[in-house]
Every structure is written in C-alpha cells, then in structure tokens.
Amino acid sequence: MDKYKLHPRYGSRKHLISNNEEGKAVNLCGSPVLKKYPATLDTDEWEETIPAATQKDLEFIYKSNTKDAKGFPIVIIDESEPTKAAASAKGSK
Amino acid sequence: MAEIVDIASTSGCDAVGGVYLAYATDASNITAVTVTSGVITGFTMAGVGQWGKLEFDDENNVAFFNETGELVGNTVRMNGEGLMQFSGISQAKITAANQAKACCSVVVIWFQNDGLKRVQGIDVAPDDSWSFSTPTGPRIVPNLNSDTGENEAIMQYNVPHQGKYGSPTTSLDGAAIEAL
Asked: Residue A88: what pLDDT?
C-alpha cells in the first residue's frame, strides 16, 4: 500500500486546510489546528479543532488530482517509504 | 478541442435567475484547487476560516452574477460582473468594505437561485488545469449609498473580472466551505 505525504515545496507551511472525502476539514501539514468562531448576534464565540490529515485523507487528496496554481500536485507518494509489495519482494531475495 | 456541442432545449419553466448568497476569499488564501470534469470539487486553503460568508439583504432581487463574452482581437474574453446588496450602512459595514476593497484579487462562490454554484476568479481549462482568472482577477468595488428618504440606505459590492473561460461550477456546499 502506498504512503502519501505533502510535497516538500510546502514543507514549511503550518496550515493547508482541505476537505476530506467526508467533507470535513483536515490540515494536510500533519498537526491539528484550532479554529475560532467569533460571536454573532445568535451565537457565542466558540472554537473547534481541525484534525491533522490521515493517510486516508492524503490518499484522497492525491487521487482527486489537487494541484496548485502552477499545476503541481500538493500531495505525492512517499517514495522514502517502501510499499509492502516492494518490501516483501526485497525480503524474498 | 474546438467543436460545437449539441444543446437541447430546456423543458419546464422554472429556470429562475438571480443569486442569494456568496462566499469570498482573498485569492492569495487559495493554495490548491481540485477540478473534476470542469467542476471545482475542492479548495486547499493557506489557513483556517478564510472564506467570508456574504448573505444579501435582497428583497428587491437586485443581486446577480453575469458574464458576457467579448471578442478582443482574435480571442474571446469573458467579462464577469457580480452585484450583492446589503441593507443599511454601519461602521461595521464600512470597515468590512474597506477591508474587502484592499484585497488585490478575490475568489467568489455565487449561490444562484436555481441551485447552481459558480466560482468567479478561477479559470478552468478543458484539460481541468486551473489558474486564477486572467487578465483581470475579481476585485470588490463597494458602494455606500444613503439614497433618498424614499428609499433605504444600502451597501453594495460590485465584483468585476475578466477571464479566459466562463466561470466554473463547484460541487461544494455551504457546510463544506464553512468547514475550511
């Protein structure tokens, strides 16, 4: 199974917020983010935590062909992590 | 990919016009876009809570988002213009207008009364590649009108732009946009 990661060109970012397959917001940069909502006439001020993206979320972003304005993908396959198939093939040699 | 595609006549009489709601953000807040068959299915934002929700006070049904093609030399350019109207003027609205007009380029998602949602400020090419609208990204041009005693004071946002292509639709609903 492939592993996915944020492209290194966005490695210094703290926040990259996208919707996952269920429509929930996730942070592609790997850490949770606190989102604060100001008070309105009808509601008090409140906050929620946007979770870090899971491998499943990153796979969804990768396979949905999400690209930046220059046409580069923001999520890529992590080539530094050997796939199970490659690891087992290597182990059988 | 130049060709003339069949367009069948529309049955029924419920092709209602107008827009009732918009979400807008500074274009620089958008890091990436997901496009599937010409439809924008996702935005990746540089931070949280960067989409402003703009609910029109529009009993007079004056809000719109129109695009008109123009032949410029040997190319066809799409000239877009949106108008949203809010009742009354307050310092909060004046401050909001000043902040909005300071954005050098914005992206606006217009919710049409017929259910379609269109994205102003992003050009999507036939191969699903995208770019911010060129030659001129959308800007918010506010009006703050006291009007006369016969009418109400209003604030308006005019949003003109010029793009290469007609503004695409999006499959995102309000909940997905507000989650970002």
From this structure: 61
| Pair A75, A6: CB distance under 8 Å | yes
Residues B66-91: pLDDT tens digits? 999 999 999 999 999 999 999 999 99
Spatial distance between the Cα atoms of B72 and B92, rounded to a whole number of angstroms: 41
Domain boundaries, chain B: 19-179
Structural contact between residues B131 and B122, judged by C-beta atoms closer than 8 angstroms: yes
What is the count of residue pairs from A and B with beta carbons less than 8 Å apart? 77
Interface test with A, best of B23, B44, B105, B129 (most A CBs within 10 A): B44
Q: What is the pLDDT of residue B82?
A: 97
Q: How many domains does chain A have?
A: 1
Q: What span, in angstroms and rounded, lies between the C-alpha atoms of B94 and B91? A: 5
B92 by Cβ neighbours in 10 Å (0-12 / 13-18 / 19+) ranks as exposed
Please give the Cα distance from B91 to B162 (Å, whole number).
31
Q: Where are the alpha helices (DSSP H) in B108-179?
A: 174-179
Closest CA to A7 of A64, A67, A52, A56: A67
Contact A61 B34 (CB under 8 A): yes
Q: What single letter denotes the amino acid at residue A36?
A: K
Chain B residues contacting A via beta carbons under 8 Å: 30-36, 41-49, 128-132, 172, 175-176, 179-180
> Which residues of B fall within a CB distance of 8 Å from A59?
none
Distance CA B44, CA A19 (A): 8
What is the DSSP-derived secondary structure letter of residue B116? -
Residue A56: exposure state from Cβ atoms within 10 A (0-12, 13-18, ≥19): exposed
